[in-house]
Design goal:
about 20% helix; disordered N terminus; alpha+beta
Length: about 100
């Protein structure tokens, strides 16, 4: 299986997904991804979403094909790991 099943469709739960953050190299480590994450969560709440979901790196290493961010950043915003597979991690934050 290459995806996470979306069983919430039957329950009409609205989930906004974050797939990647692309920050210019010279601007990295300045809190920009954190500001973007904060904005996505606020916008999702304002748009009536129930959850925000993210797919961060499984380990603290750089992956050139994926810019999902790091678990620690999401944890600081109240995201929790809801699924861990050999392909990666799914984290989710409840908005309401």
């Amino acid at each position: 299986m290459d995806y996470v099943p979306i069983d919430e469709l039957e329950n009409k739960i609205k989930t906004k997904s974050i797939f990647c953050f692309m920050i210019a190299k010279e601007m990295q480590r300045k809190g920009i991804a954190t500001l973007l994450l904060e904005r996505v969560c606020q916008d999702a709440l304002n748009e009536g979403f129930d959850y925000v979901e993210a797919y961060p790196y499984k380990a603290n290493s750089y992956h050139s094909s994926d810019f999902g961010g790091y678990v620690k950043m999401y944890e600081k915003f109240g995201f929790q790991i809801i699924k861990e597979t050999d392909k990666g991690i799914v984290m989710r934050k409840k908005l309401k």
